[in-house]
Amino acid sequence: MPSSRHARSPSSRSRRRFLGGIAGASIAPAFSSFLMPGVALAQSAKLGTADYGVASIDPLYAMAYVAAKKGYFAQAGLDVRPLNAQSGPRAKQMLAAGQLFAATSGVNDPVSLTIAGKQAVLVAGFDNRIAFANILTTKKLYEGGLKDIRSLAGRSIGVTQPQSATWLMAVYLADRAGIKDKLQVRALGDFSTMLGAVKSGSVDCCTATYSMLNKAKEEGWGVPLFEVTDDASWNANFGGDVPGVGLYVMQDSIDKRPEAVQALVTGIVKASDFIRQTTPGDIVSLIEEEYLPGYGRQLSIDSVSVFKKIWSGDNLITPQHYARLMDVMGGRQITPQEMKQVPYEKMVNMSFVKRARGLA
Predict the structure, then answer these.
(1) Among 15, 51, 109, 163, which one is most buried in terms of CB atoms within 10 A?
(2) What is the pLDDT of residues 71-99, one digit of tens each?
């Protein structure tokens, strides 16, 4: 329930409500999908409403939270109602089913959706590295000799779901280390379960967000085997910048509601600029109460501090970025023939970002 302070706010009364029916997938306490509060009343939005699914509750998605909290979507004329889709695969499924106007999750999700016959398009980038490509294990195993990804041969790694972005990272990094066929990949369902499984020893490691890494370190038991902020390790494995999460919509939405897509992207761009110019502590102060339930303040600040190093400064996904993404997905999540179905020109439309930034 909203606090008494929010209960006095007209915008909170009109928009802080809950939707049920989606299984949890966050290291924060799981609860039903939530609509985040905005600033302007819904009836003032000249471009109508738009439900926007965010893959989970995590500081990684701060751009969406800031855009809602600061009223950037409403200022652009659109009543955007972000909700917790509680996983990337669920977000893309809801988008394809018409339950969402837009989604933010792993950038591999719209590619997979398009290959499945539902044309989706990336319209803005959030980052330049895949923030959930970290590999987390326990201090006990690390001290026992589990020092790098290659030493995971014959062991197990936890991911969210098969074919998810976390699954792709596990398979890709194992392949790069030459142990693809020697690593057991286990689908565990959500970040909370993954974290608990590593801590209890039911799996040897898991792909992890920085919030997960920080929580495990804070509790004194977690050690990273691979960190996306290690420039040498990242470039050795990925060759340069690769988009991790992004904003995407169906092509049909671009065709029928281009002004609404523009308003959505403009809100994200303004949030990106605000984040770049604002300290981690001030960012967390703005969004923690509504959007990061269950996270400790310092945990959130530490995560945002790291994400500021990898969040995109311009929200653009370039042909070079996309080519590296295809290198990651190719032969693992999609076949060479399927790659021909999803060229950059079909999958990425940066015209909305360019207009928002005055570059068009």
Answers:
(1) 109
(2) 999 999 999 998 999 888 899 999 999 99
